[in-house]
Specification:
elongated; 55% helix; eight-stranded mixed sheet; alpha/beta; 12 strands; 792 residues
């Protein structure tokens, strides 16, 4: 800057300064070119990796591993040493990419193991699979795979890295390892501190997303094997029986990653079906990154690291909130108690007029085994408290049919929902496709290791459900089997789809909801007709049945945004949420600390709520066609819960930070008001009115909502359909309030109460409070619905 300043202010020396400046620029350009060429040559030479010319320390310092995020996206690089250091700043080191090769002799079925050299810095002396190491940056051929490479299963980078290291560690020439013969199976994300070697404060460990590769030779004699003494102490070809013996030998050490792979897949599946593993994609799972904490002896290290995935696995006692992975938003108890009408409703529902169970009726006791039915009833309560009470109040002639229908579909849903139990999507699809044949065809069929908590127990004891199913009428069995197969086929269609960012569009969104809920509506309608409690024509109400199911399912999907996103199986349609996400990611909406994100996320949420509200007219039409009081309540209770949930979700940012739930008192109040169509209409009118109030309040505040007109139109349609029932219910509620008010007024006029009646004031006061609290539920109303006994 000084030179330029002088040059511009001193005309006499300008020509000299120009010459000097030109020389400086020329010198800089020449130096830059030389430096660039030098760096290029260094990079080129780095590609010619020669492990035989490097010590263990050299490789620790010079090898550059591929640094990842939890989704296996490349976010940088680090030296091998830096990535494997465990300390307080990085308790589990740095997550990076790795591969594990399993090399088999087809003629004997044996697997080649290696014992890592005692000179290795991390995990020396341990027995492990054939070869495990890392793809590196700067190699030729390139060893860095893209998400597309993983999705199509090619992962040529990992395979080239495997060829390089098999040559280095075991001396197997690359010409004996055709790259096309490697089989990529899946990925696992694990970590482990090397506490067995270096003690509980070990400064070393592994934290990797490991690509599992299989390779087979016809006969081990085809291979040239010359282990590198600085890499491998020993090798051994083993059968499954020999490996089992070795792993039971307490004097031998095994790598934590090898133990995890053995336990999850190797012995029970991949190796057992080696030909199938190598010639088909039945055992390939490219979409899932399986997560594992290490065996307990490998926890800790210098960073005092505890379990990483324990929180993600969740609390089995908490079903909503992804088994504890996502918090559930609840109002404080004091605030809940401030809603006195709901407190009284809860008391009235639980103590005065609860839903009565019809399980202990002569018809059921005579036709079904007590022990098996007791299990089905108990597990029903565990897997769905809300549905259990609603199912139990059904007439005895159809109660068990609906109960078993629910449990069968819940078992199927558990298989679909489990993203870690199956080695590949192809295997899960086979289980889904065969579920009708196995679960409903084989009286002894059960399944273990799938699901969590009570859902897992349901599958483990499914034979008890089957014995009850086998005693149902042929009509009911036929309906349950048909819906089960069609739902399984629909679920299988979606298993192979990448739902991490939701469904593709509204059409796919509706199709998914049809398979998992619309078909349930159809099955229920057919079972209602088969029972004789509803008209035979009701079995043909396919459209309305489907719409009713879609309304319930869409409500759940809206509410469960975060829970589904955490589980990598989201359903919000991309054509809707992409309009509001500035990053093109569904996870954009979780950043609620950003004001713009909050605004855009609510706009997206309100469009989805409006889409669901447009299904309400068909739901009300379905309810209007029912004639049996118990069946009506069974259908109406979920519907009123759904409209209340949509009201709770509308313009509520808590949807993006946890699970939103309506108050228990609200639930009790809603259940009590499902005795007639008018009561249901009144409920829908009030909640649609509440949504309109929120929308208008936001508009007055200047908040822009692109879905405002759509929301208003949907709510206005609901109110037009339900206005008459709302007016009649308002009139019905007026009488108890007037009478209660008079009683309270009388109690306060103590000077007019005769002295001969002590306690009269208190009695009038209690009567007045009781009338105000319970009167609205005690006043009966005429209805066209008939009791099941009358219909039977």
């Amino acid at each position: 800057v000084f030179l330029f300043d002088e040059m511009l202010t001193n005309n006499q020396t300008r020509r000299s300064w120009n010459s000097i400046f030109l020389v400086c620029c020329t010198s800089f350009l020449v130096t830059f070119q030389v430096s660039l060429a030098s760096n290029f040559n260094m990079a080129s030479s780095a590609k010619k990796w020669n492990g035989n010319a490097m010590s263990q320390n050299d490789m620790m310092l010079k090898d550059t591993v591929v640094v990842l995020d939890d989704e296996d996206n490349i976010i940088g690089s680090a030296s091998k040493k830096e990535s494997h250091v465990f300390n307080t700043e990085q308790p589990r080191g740095i997550l990076h990419r790795a591969f594990s090769v399993f090399l088999f002799d087809e003629s004997t079925g044996e697997l080649l193991l290696q014992q890592r050299a005692s000179t290795k810095i991390t995990f020396p002396n341990v027995w492990t699979n054939t070869c495990c190491s890392h793809p590196l940056h700067g190699m030729e051929p390139a060893e860095v795979d893209t998400p597309e490479d993983v999705a199509n299963g090619t992962v040529m980078g990992a395979k080239y890295a495997a060829i390089r290291k098999l040559d280095h560690e075991l001396g197997i020439p690359s010409n004996q390892l055709p790259v096309e013969k490697f089989k990529f199976l899946t990925r696992l994300h694990y970590w482990a501190a090397d506490t067995v070697t270096h003690g509980r404060d070990s400064p070393w460990g592994e934290h990797e997303i490991d690509y599992v590769l299989f390779f087979c030779v016809k006969n081990k004699s085809e291979l040239t094997i010359k282990p590198h003494p600085d890499e491998v102490d020993d090798i051994k070809w083993v059968s499954t029986q020999k490996l089992d013996e070795m792993m039971k030998d307490s004097s031998l050490l095994f790598s934590p990653w090898f133990r995890l792979i053995c336990k999850k897949w190797l012995v029970t599946s991949w190796w057992k079906n080696l030909k199938q593993t190598m010639t088909t994609n039945d055992h390939c799972d490219y979409a899932t990154i399986h997560e594992f904490d290490p065996p307990k002896e490998h926890l800790g290290g210098n960073g005092k690291a505890g379990p990483l995935f324990e929180e993600k696995q969740g609390d089995e006692s908490k079903k909503q909130g992804a088994y504890g992975k996502v918090k559930t938003h609840k109002e404080p108890m004091l605030k809940q108690l401030s809603h006195l009408d709901e407190v009284f409703a809860a008391f009235y529902f639980l103590k005065v007029n609860p839903l009565k169970s019809n399980l202990e009726t002569p018809f059921i006791e005579e036709n079904f085994g007590a022990d098996d039915l007791a299990f089905c009833d108990d597990i029903l309560v565990k897997v769905s408290r809300s549905f259990a009470a609603v199912i139990r109040q059904l007439p005895s002639s159809m109660l068990v049919d609906i109960l078993i229908f629910y449990l069968v579909l819940r078992a199927l849903d558990t298989i679909e929902d489990d993203t870690t139990a199956f080695e590949s999507n192809d295997i899960k699809i086979k289980h889904l496709a065969n579920f009708r044949k196995t679960a409903l065809g084989d009286p002894t069929w059960t399944m273990d290791g799938v699901g969590e908590g009570d859902e897992k127990r349901l599958l483990q004891n499914f034979d008890k459900c089957h014995r009850v199913y086998a005693k149902l009428s042929e009509k009911s069995q036929s309906v349950i089997a048909d819906i089960t197969q069609r739902m399984a086929d629909g679920m299988a269609e979606f298993v192979g789809k990448d739902l991490g960012q939701g469904t593709v569009d509204v059409e796919q969104y509706n199709r998914y909801c049809h398979f998992v809920a619309g078909l349930v509506g159809e099955g229920l309608s057919r079972l209602f007709a088969a029972s004789g409690l509803e008209k035979q024509s009701f079995a043909g109400e396919l459209f309305l049945s489907d719409q009713m199911g879609l309304f319930l399912q869409k409500t759940n999907i809206i509410r469960d945004y975060l829970e589904d996103y955490v589980d990598h199986r989201a359903f919000w349609p991309q054509t809707i949420w992409n309009k509001y996400s500035k990053t093109g990611e569904l996870g954009y909406f979780t950043r609620q600390e950003d004001e713009e994100v909050r605004e855009r996320s609510l706009q997206c949420l309100n469009e989805l709520v409006s889409d669901a509200l447009e299904l309400v007219p068909d739901c009300l039409a379905y309810l209007s066609k029912l004639q049996c009081k118990q069946v009506f309540r069974f259908c109406a209770i979920p519907q009123v819960m759904a409209i209340a949930t949509l009201d709770k979700c509308y313009s509520n940012s808590n949807v993006f930070t946890g699970v939103v739930k309506i108050r228990k008192g609200t639930s009790c109040k809603l259940i009590l008001r499902t005795n007639t169509l008018d009561e249901v209409h009144d409920t829908f009118y009030q909640f649609s009115q509440a949504i309109v109030g929120k929308a208008m309040a936001k508009r007055r505040m200047g908040v822009v909502d692109p879905s405002y007109e759509r929301t208003m139109k949907a709510c206005e349609t609901i109110q037009e359909l339900t206005a008459s029932g709302h007016r009649r219910q308002t009139s019905k509620r007026r009488m108890p309030f007037v009478l209660g008010g008079l009683l309270l007024a009388a109690s306060l006029g103590s000077k007019h109460i005769p002295v001969d009646f002590p306690g009269m004031q208190q009695s009038l006061l209690l009567l007045g409070i009781g009338m105000l609290s319970f009167g609205p539920y005690a006043v009966s109303q005429e209805s066209d619905l008939k009791d099941a006994n009358a219909l039977q």
